[in-house]
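Researcher: Can you fold this with 3,4-dihydroxyphenylalanine in place?
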Amino acid sequence: MKEKLEQLYQTISAEINNAATVAELEEVKNNHMSRKSELNNIRKQLKDLSIEDKKIIGALTNKISQDLQTLLDEKQEVLKTAERNEKLKSEVIDITLPGDYLPSGKMHPITKSINEIVQIFQGMGFSVIKHENSPELETEYVNFDMLNFPQDHPARDMQDTFYVQDRDNVILRSQTSGAQIREMLSHKPPIRVISPGRVFRCETVSARKHNQFHQIEGLLIDKDITFADLKGILNEFIKIYFEGARPTRLRNSFFPFTEPSCEVDVQCIMCNGKGCRVCSGSGWLEILGAGMVDVNVLKNVGLDPEEYSGFAFGMGVERMAMLKYAIDDIRLFFNNDIRFLSQFKGK
Ligand code: DAH
């Protein structure tokens, strides 16, 4: 038995030595150190030996098992380190290699302009209206009736407004002014909000007109609000947006939902008022419509005109961007031509 044990030691230790990989070593371990191994068989036979032999052979069996285990552990460590080193070598990354060029996207000029305008008004205490109060799919009731448009107003014509097929009174909104109504119906004054969004009109597309564009609506309702407040806010806005005071004029105008109403022109930024192609020779460019909220509109939303007054304004975002960045064709905003879009940097 002693010889058998010594022979086993020789065989197994040689196999351990010869194992070239962790997997091979694992196999040696399974073959020779498991319950069904020869070494274990010998251990099972110990009980049949004389006490004297049991002592000697038992001790030898234990020693051989321990020595083999130590050999195994050492070899395992060596193989694992070698394999790890091999892996590290094969995974080496050359950080001096040039990277792949990934062109980054740019903010769309309309989104950029909306962000700029919104930020200016936020700085003056306005907050952005909740999305649900400014839907693109709107009722004729909110878009027109509540805003004091008479039934026969030409803006309601099929030629001007997109009506939704088979749905009575549902339209693609033609203006963001409906957001005023939804806001006043869901909030009590003081109200100081702006509402950026897309609007749709049944227009023939040209360099100056598109059948979809963006507007930013503003509404302020409180006690003792006057036309002077409107003028002050708009002048401040123009000064910040055009990065410096610009000659501005208020022109008398008419909108069904404001009284009095006005339109605001700024001096043409292309010719500084001398008259050019962009301003059709007038020296002025219209940027928005505004006015004091009509008494009828206040009544429509259940506000007492004796207690509250306010102003509203609405501007075209494309127009504002065209003026600021000297863009002469509105279609450029919708064509998704990367050569145009990639010129706009920043947030
Ligand atoms: N909704 C008007 C339009 O689309 C613009 C406008 C004019 C908005 C006067 C207003 C306003 O809030 O007071 O032409």
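Model: Folded with 3,4-dihydroxyphenylalanine in place. The domain at 109-344 is CATH 3.30.930.10 (BirA Bifunctional Protein; domain 2).
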